[in-house]
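Narrative of activities, Objective 1.

The group set out to show that a structural description can be obtained from nothing but a protein's sequence at a throughput compatible with the screening campaign. Below is one input-output pair from the validation batch, recorded exactly as produced.
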Amino acid sequence: MLPFEQKRALLLRNPKARRGQESIDPLLQRLAAGGLNVTVETFEALPELARDIVRLRHIADLVIICGGDGSISSAAMAAMESGLPLGIIPMGTANDLARTLAIPMDLLEAADVIARREMRRVDVGTVNGHAFFNVASIGLSSELAQSLDPTLKKRYGRLGYAVAAMKVIRRASRFRARIVEKGRAIEVETYQIAVGNGRHYGGGNVVEESAEIDDGHLDLYSLEMKNLWKLATMLRSFRSGTHGAWQEVRTAKCVEFDIETKTPMPINTDGEIVTATPGHFKVHPKAISIFAPPAASGAVVHAPMYHR
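Output recorded for this entry:
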């Protein structure tokens, strides 16, 4: 087998990620063995990540992100504009994008995917110009993102999410929103509206049963039950993406959505609060290349536009 052509890789590391303090020397050796000449940079805040890509794109043929879902999404717009493909070393807590793309959670195995130059074109979602790969949400998830103690998150991982979620649920209340899709508007009273681009979110939940990260559309759901504690009986359906079968869950598919609320509400994208309502959500089909194993074959089944 002929060796791969030597490529220049810009590796950006988030030391605040859950596994961000682990040694990357074995990773660098594995990448070098795959023909990659790696430049390492560390960023302390997510806005620095995009600036580093723009500043250093002339010395790179690809970008590798060592961090979680928030870090990867923060890199998306700069990677799209530069045309550089993204590599992922999943060092975060949930690592939902890696899960969606079947990127191994073992860091060295994830490096091997990059070294083998396996690549997929995937969709990118945006809300008010901010990118997301997994999901953007209003309501419960945004409250969770704001209340989650970073120390708790780093130390306890998903358990930290569960503890914070229980606190959020106890004080949660419904809000009124207006969802506009293809000129059609609908008024809802809901605990949460989520708009998914990929498949997995929230540590392994599924946005919608047939959702894929390269299907060219967004999947929306709205939680419209009167008693939030009913979520306990619905949890299994969220893990499989079949929650749309419940009468209290409204679902929709489209390439663009507009969501308005009476007063501005924060919007959470892949675990980070980045903007507020009103929100314009849009899918950008196959907008970026990510190093990942080939997609499994199989037809995607499309659900009706709206149902209750």
